């Protein structure tokens, strides 16, 4: 990440270059007037060096500005977007090194072509404002990119889990005995677990846990399922064992304060999933499942029952192991939420895409996601079942073919409770290529529904779709634009 010193040096250099050019000095002329070498002046303008007070005073006199004006962190209106970016928390906290980017090189790019970089940055800011992007959107997008870079498999965290289990003499046989985690938290890390206090805070009804760092108390919501509590305990162990200091203190969506917090929360969650679903055992179980000649949803349910984890935890764990152990690298993960049964909208609250493929994906255009997606269909089915027996869980498979001819084998788990409670589905989609056909025997089972699907209803050209939620207005708009362009082209190129 860029340090405060780098930011100060870069802003000073940009301001110095702009003033020099405005005053009509060449680098050699200004260097001679201030009694410095041209190479030294060049390093100052590129943000590599920061001059001493006497040199700043000399520069200010030659350029006709005050000392304070030259050293302030305010750039001219023309370069204001660069200043805004450099001083933003996003760039200060973003771990450039994690993506193989040298902060010094970023500084050089900005210093070498400030006008072009300013135009580029202004464009990004305008897009961010138009789509109401917040800092957390940027950090979460960066995290997804980081996961995709590594095929969402992190050997160091897997090894940390193995080492931890050996050191603490834990048994990893499924289902994982979570009393082992409680013992470690209490005896090794000095925690106190309270399973009643959080019930007194009605306004915090959706929080599963709160950690109080001053007293090292972990407040757990009464009535958590075994799987939910296991995940909370696993994360708390990870924060301590991995030494992750900057962290969220609640187990829920939280205000994002820094990228380190986002990254550490991901690491702790990954650790918890790897702890509760031990790698070698789950890979062996998945191999047996994929070797089934027919699609047998009850066998997938058996795996959930055996590991005693939530559907989301299980499907997230698949995204760790399928690329690494089965070479199924072209996959996506989607989580959909429907707030209550009467709500016609579905929110894509989590997504991950590995390899170059980004289909299907979320959008912020307030359009209706395709109702042919198995993710949405099973939410609706779970809602119907919950009318007679709540909570209800449904699992299913579908082969979905998209307009670009990509076909995915989608495995989905959905759950719903009462009509006013949220319903959720989680889906892992696997690209139907030669590798998948070799690894998953039941991929072509006729019992698996095949559907032609699209992104959103507004962009869908499927005729007479039985579940359309909105008219294809975007397609119609594009057709009108093509007609207009064709008419203009014909008129422009007419002979007479």
Summarize this structure briefly.
It contains 20 helices and nine strands. The chain is an alpha+beta fold and 496 residues long.
Molecular structure report:
Helix content is 48%, strand content 12%. Helix 1 packs parallel to helix 8 and helix 8 packs across helix 9. The radius of gyration is 28 Å and the shape is globular. The strands form two sheets. Strands 5-4-8-7-6-9 form a six-stranded mixed β-sheet. The protein has a three-stranded mixed β-sheet with strand order 1-3-2, covered by helices on one side. It is α+β, with helices and mostly antiparallel strands and 496 residues long.
Q: Which terms would index this structure?
A:
496 residues; alpha+beta; six-stranded mixed β-sheet; three-stranded mixed β-sheet; 12% strand
Helix content: 40-55%
- General shape: globular
Q: Total helix count?
A: 20
- Overall radius of gyration: 28 Å
Widest sheet, order of strands: 5-4-8-7-6-9
Structural class: alpha+beta
| H/E element order | HHHHHHHHHHHHEEEHHHHHEEHEEEHEH
| Overall pLDDT metric | 87
Outline the low-pLDDT stretches.
none
List the helices and strands and how they pair.
Blueprint: H1 4-23, H2 27-34, H3 38-45, H4 53-63, H5 67-71, H6 80-86, H7 89-93, H8 103-112, H9 114-130, H10 135-149, H11 155-167, H12 179-187, E1 192-194, E2 209-212, E3 217-220, H13 226-241, H14 259-276, H15 279-290, H16 297-307, H17 311-326, E4 331-338, E5 347-353, H18 374-386, E6 392-401, E7 407-416, E8 423-431, H19 434-439, E9 449-452, H20 473-492
Parallel strand pairs: 1-3, 6-9
Antiparallel strand pairs: 2-3, 4-5, 4-8, 6-7, 7-8
């Amino acid at each position: 990440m860029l340090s405060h010193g780098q930011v100060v040096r870069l802003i000073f250099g940009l301001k110095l270059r702009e003033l020099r050019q405005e005053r009509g000095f060449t680098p050699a002329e200004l260097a001679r007037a201030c009694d410095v070498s041209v190479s030294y002046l060049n390093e100052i303008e590129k943000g590599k060096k920061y001059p001493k007070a006497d040199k700043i005073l000399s520069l200010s006199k030659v350029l006709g500005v005050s000392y304070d004006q030259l050293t302030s962190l305010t750039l001219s209106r023309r370069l204001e977007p660069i200043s805004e970016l450099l001083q933003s928390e996003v760039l200060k906290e973003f771990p450039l090194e994690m993506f193989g980017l040298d902060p010094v090189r970023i500084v050089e790019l900005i210093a070498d072509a400030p006008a072009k970089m300013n135009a580029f940055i202004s464009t990004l800011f305008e897009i961010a404002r138009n789509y109401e992007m917040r800092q957390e959107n940027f950090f979460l997008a960066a995290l997804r990119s980081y996961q995709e870079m590594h095929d969402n498999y992190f050997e160091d965290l897997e090894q940390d889990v193995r080492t931890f289990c050996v050191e603490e003499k834990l048994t990893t046989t499924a289902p994982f005995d979570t009393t082992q985690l409680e013992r470690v938290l209490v005896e090794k890390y000095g925690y106190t677990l309270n399973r009643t206090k959080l019930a007194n805070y009605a306004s915090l009804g959706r929080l599963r846990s709160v950690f109080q760092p001053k007293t090292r108390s972990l407040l757990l919501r009464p009535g958590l399922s075994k799987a939910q509590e296991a995940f909370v305990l696993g994360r708390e162990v990870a924060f301590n064992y991995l030494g992750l200091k900057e962290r969220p203190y609640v187990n829920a969506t939280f205000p994002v304060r820094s990228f380190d917090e986002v990254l550490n929360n991901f690491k702790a969650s990954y650790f918890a999933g790897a702890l509760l679903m031990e790698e070698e055992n789950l890979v062996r179980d998945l191999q047996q499942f994929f070797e089934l000649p027919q699609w047998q949803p009850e066998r997938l349910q058996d795996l959930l029952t055996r590991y005693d984890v939530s559907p989301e935890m299980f499907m997230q764990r698949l995204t760790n192991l399928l690329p690494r152990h089965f070479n199924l690298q072209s996959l996506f993960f989607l989580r959909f939420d429907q707030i209550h049964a009467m709500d016609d909208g579905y929110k894509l609250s989590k997504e991950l895409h590995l390899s170059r493929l980004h289909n299907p994906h979320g959008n912020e255009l307030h359009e209706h996601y395709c109702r042919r997606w198995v993710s949405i269909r099973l939410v609706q089915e779970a809602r119907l079942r919950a009318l007679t027996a709540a909570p209800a869980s449904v699992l299913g498979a579908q082969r979905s073919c998209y307009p670009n001819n990509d076909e995915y084998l989608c495995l989905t788990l959905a759950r719903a409770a009462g009509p006013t409670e949220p319903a959720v589905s989680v889906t892992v989609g696997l690209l139907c290529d030669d590798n998948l056909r070799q690894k998953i025997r039941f991929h072509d089972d006729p019992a698996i529904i095949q559907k032609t699907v699209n992104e959103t209803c507004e962009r869908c050209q499927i005729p007479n779709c039985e579940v359309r939620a909105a008219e294809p207005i975007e397609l119609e708009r594009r057709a009108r634009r093509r007609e207009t362009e064709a008419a203009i082209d014909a008129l422009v190129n007419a002979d007479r």
